[in-house]
Design brief:
3 helices; elongated
């Protein structure tokens, strides 16, 4: 019973992550098209930033679903190792996306002050 509820929760969170990415991509493209029509020179950068942010948020949902599934359903050494690898890969993706969005490494402070 509990495992079934956790499986449903995990599925909902995974779907939530996919939906966040899809909706974010849709709106980013709509804004990009509108910006391109008025010849906004920052349209492409805005698209990259919006799309990157939606991917980051979606990844957070997907990582949370993986953690819940591994810890609550199948807490074996091999499943925890696979979870660690998945989290490591997704963390690297998140870090890379943050660098792409901000245009700088996270530990470099902004010089806009």
């Amino acid at each position: 019973m509990i495992k079934d509820l956790i499986n449903i929760l995990t599925l909902i969170m995974e779907l939530g992550g996919v939906v966040v990415i899809a909706i974010g991509a849709f709106f980013a493209i709509v804004v990009f098209i509108k910006s391109s029509l008025i010849k906004d020179p920052l349209a492409y950068e805005s698209l990259r930033g919006s799309l990157g942010k939606s991917i980051l948020l979606g990844l957070e949902f997907l990582v949370a679903a993986d953690i819940i599934n591994t810890v609550a359903i199948d807490p074996t050494i091999s499943s925890v190792a696979v979870l660690g690898l998945i989290v490591l890969i997704r963390t690297f993706l998140s870090f890379s996306l943050n660098v792409e969005i901000d245009g700088r490494l996270p530990w470099n402070k902004s010089t806009d002050n």
